[in-house]
Design brief:
seven-stranded mixed sheet; three-stranded antiparallel sheet; Leucine-rich Repeat Variant; single chain; disordered N terminus; disordered C terminus; 6 domains; alpha/beta; 799 residues
């Protein structure tokens, strides 16, 4: 019946198979199932084992002492399964004979029992400190150590606690029997050998406290002390030498003479072995390779790498830089005679690689691109033409400044140059010329013959603020020189700055506000900038920084013809003028300025207008006064472009309004809020379009998008346009002059920076008949109230 039921459950295709095939199929299924399921014999054996284990556990717990000893030994046959009942018996039994059997059984099981025994000792040391548990737990560890012929460092702290507790118990008058747990711990440490090195100082310190050791069979601590030290000597482990020697020196006076002599001899042998080990490499150098294979390999690699490094340093320095930039920022780890040492490999490679020769090779590859980028900057492009003029160099007159005159400055560890003077005297042009000299390929043409430098121009409008603003701006500008796949780390930038491979140009320092000024000065100190050129209207101290002072001189009348001729040559326009025409133009300029000296800016603007007239760009006569020179400079630029959609009158009105917004706050050129400029241009036709035109096409105004401000690129132009604006607005309202001049007088004594605006106002008032006479007299009085040195500054010198 059962067979029928089984067959009925088979699939139809199996029932329909021939009888022979069905038999083979069933046999195969039976074989597979039999191999997957445990056999009855195996199940029977496992059940028998579990029953025997439970029987031995019960016998160990409730049996007679003899039966308990037998059960303990038999449990060792069960390996790891026998550990829990043996540990439980170690904790609960009070029969020394049974506990001895338990210790023997644990010793037979071996290393797997060690963690359980250590945990038991820890619990007892932290709790009741049962003498029997501690004694036979230590014996169990000793038995395991004997079997495996090694110690267990994790157990040493617990054995040391037993020894320390023994000292306390002895001081409290414990019996000799109760102190035998300590002897068991010392006995165990004997078999641990070198693994018990940390316990040696404690054993030495406790040795004088032993009593009755001559009359009892207590295990003497001197025996494990000597044994462990000998093991340390044999294994050349000298890491505990200082601790062992220190403990012996502090305790030897209290030791028995025999113990003192034996331990002293053993320690002496240990020290001798260490001394021989330290110099073993001299006797047998091959031992270094055997003992320190990693360190030896690294030494050879280092020597070979050093040779390769020197070869690259002299022949392919840029390869060193590429390797440096590709190194990971993490630390390298080396194990050897000093243990495991971690150090930043990138830092060490950089310390060797970021040297002048490597930096010079990098700078050399960037000079051409740096020249192109620097020349395209608007301020540089506007002042690209430089005509040498006499300058005052640290109070000494130099007829024509050349790179050689600056050698002494650039040989100093800190090369700082301050170019000071009134607006338009050529400060910025000279600073840019120094930058071009620094990029020259030939050493004799550079201010620093040993190497070239890359220029960085700062005009006070960089986006970042704070102590790191200067460094961030330098890094941003240098990034334009890099290839898309090239990187620049902070340490590389620091090396470029500290080795003077970068020259920073700070233009218009006197016009910076306090926040930007603080950012620049603090950044110069923090970023290790060693080569800086400042321009400023005042002879300022620039914090506490030492500097070389350069003051450009104005153009004297007897120098004017030579200057104009040289400037026309650099413009490639000299052929437009006959000698007499050139002379007439210079004479006309002399009549405009009168007895004053002429600044570079005024001369340049006038020469460009002479050229425009010769080329037919303008047909009117040349300007008859200084304010007209500035107005005509905008007209010349405008006529070259000739935008049909933007009338010239709208451009001039917008220029005047913008200039006044940039000066009206404190009467010196600065940046005005973009929103205020928009409001000022609101009533002027095409005002918004003119602002964009003045910025993008004519390039005389700069829109600082980051800070939403607007400023003129040339301060004297802003001063004269603002003066024209004030004069025209007040010419029909004489009553307004009194209020305006009162405000101007209150500012005149506060800063020298507004002197240029006062002179511009004086020139504008002098040519406008509608200006009240008292206004012109007030302006004259303000100028005459200055010192004699200030009086000598003519209107033309404030450009």
């Amino acid at each position: 019946m059962a067979s029928v039921l089984i067959v009925e459950r088979f699939p139809p295709w199996l029932i329909e198979m021939p009888h022979k095939d069905l038999t083979l199929g069933l046999l195969l299924i039976w074989i597979i199932l039999a191999s997957l399921l445990p056999s009855n014999k195996a199940l029977a054996l496992d059940q028998s084992r579990q029953q025997a284990l439970q029987s031995l556990k019960h016998q160990l717990t409730t049996g007679e002492p003899k039966d308990q000893r037998d059960a303990a030994i038999k449990l060792s046959y069960f390996g790891d399964d026998g550990i829990p009942p043996l540990i439980e018996a170690l904790k609960t039994s009070r029969d020394p004979n049974v506990l001895g059997a338990v210790a023997d059984a644990l010793g037979l099981i071996g290393a797997n029992a060690v963690p359980f025994v250590i945990r038991t000792l820890h619990d007892e040391n932290s709790g009741n400190r049962n003498v029997l548990v501690l004694r036979y737990g230590a014996n169990a560890l000793k038995n395991i150590a004997q079997k495996l012929k090694r110690g267990f460092p994790d157990a040493v702290p617990e054995l040391m606690r037993i020894l320390q507790n023994r000292a306390l118990a002895e001081a409290e008058g414990a019996s000799d029997y109760d102190l035998q747990d300590s002897d068991a711990a010392a006995d165990c440490l004997f078999y641990f050998g070198k693994d018990a090195k940390q316990a040696v100082p404690l054993l030495i310190e406790l040795l004088p406290n032993e009593r009755n050791r001559k009359t009892t069979n207590h295990y003497e601590k001197s025996t494990p002390i000597i044994s462990i030290i000998e093991q340390l000597r044999l294994h050349k482990d000298f890491s505990a030498n200082d601790a062992i020697t220190g403990a012996f020196e502090s305790t030897k006076a209290k030791l028995d003479e025999n113990d003192r002599t034996a331990i002293a001899n053993t320690i002496s042998s240990l020290k001798t072995a260490k001394a021989l080990s330290d110099w073993e490499w001299l006797i047998n150098p091959s031992q270094i390779f055997v003992k320190y294979p990693t360190l030896t390999s690294l030494t050879f690699v280092g020597l070979f790498g050093g040779l390769v490094w020197f070869a690259l340093f002299f022949f392919r320095p840029l390869w060193l830089l590429r390797i440096y930039e590709s190194l990971p920022p993490g630390d390298a780890h080396i194990s050897g005679i000093l243990g495991t040492v971690s150090f930043p490999i990138r830092y060490l490679w950089g310390a060797c690689t970021l040297r002048p020769r490597v930096l010079d090779a990098w700078v050399k590859t960037k000079l051409e691109r740096a020249d192109q980028i620097f020349s395209k900057k608007n301020p540089v492009r506007e002042r690209r033409i430089y005509v040498p003029l006499p300058v005052s160099l640290d109070g000494r007159l130099v007829t024509q400044l050349v790179p050689k005159d600056l050698r002494e400055t650039f040989e100093r560890s800190q090369s700082r140059i301050l170019i000071s003077g009134p607006g338009g005297c050529g400060k910025t042009s000279l600073a840019f010329q120094i930058a071009y000299w620094a990029m020259r390929k030939e050493g004799e043409e550079r201010p620093c013959p040993s190497h070239a430098m890359l220029p960085i121009l700062l005009e006070g409008d960089f986006s970042a603020r704070g102590e790191d603003a200067l460094r961030e701006e330098i890094a941003t500008q240098l990034s334009d020189l890099l290839h898309p796949t090239e990187k620049m780390s902070q340490s590389f930038l620091t090396s470029l700055l500290s080795y003077k491979r970068i020259i920073v140009l700070v233009d218009g320092m006197s016009e910076f506000n306090d926040e930007i000024r603080s950012s620049v000065l603090s950044g110069l100190a923090r970023s290790l900038v060693k080569a800086v050129v400042f321009t400023s209207r005042t002879d300022e101290t620039i914090g506490n920084l030492n500097r070389t002072s350069i003051t450009p001189t104005n153009i004297k009348k007897d120098q004017l013809l030579d200057f104009v001729g040289a400037y026309l040559h650099k413009l490639n326009k000299r052929e437009l003028f006959k000698d007499q025409e050139l002379f007439n133009g210079c004479s006309h300029m002399s009549r405009i300025v009168g007895e004053r000296e002429i600044t570079v800016l005024l001369a340049e603007l006038f020469v460009k207008q002479m050229v425009a007239k010769q080329e037919g760009i303008i047909v009117e006569d040349l300007p008859q006064n200084i304010p007209d020179v500035f107005l005509r400079s905008i007209e010349v630029l405008h006529r070259k472009i000739k935008p049909e959609e933007l009338p010239y009158n709208d451009v001039i009105r917008s220029s005047l309004a913008i200039a006044w917004e940039c000066l009206k706050e404190n009467y010196q050129p600065g940046a005005a809020e973009y929103e205020a400029i928009q409001n000022a241009l609101g009533e002027i036709p095409n005002g918004e379009k003119a602002l964009k035109y003045l910025s993008e096409r004519l390039g005389i105004v700069e829109i600082m998008a980051i800070h939403q401000k607007v400023r003129f690129r040339t301060d004297p132009l802003a001063e004269y346009l603002a003066a024209i604006y004030v004069t025209r607005n007040n010419e029909h309202h004489p009553e307004h002059w009194q209020e305006f001049l009162s405000g101007l007088s209150s500012k005149s004594g506060s800063t020298e920076s507004i002197r240029g605006f006062i002179i511009a106002l004086q020139d504008c008032c002098a040519i406008n008949e509608r200006v009240p006479r008292y206004a012109l007299n007030t302006l004259t009085d303000l100028l005459e109230s200055k010192s004699d040195a200030q009086k000598s500054t003519a209107p033309a010198t404030r450009m």
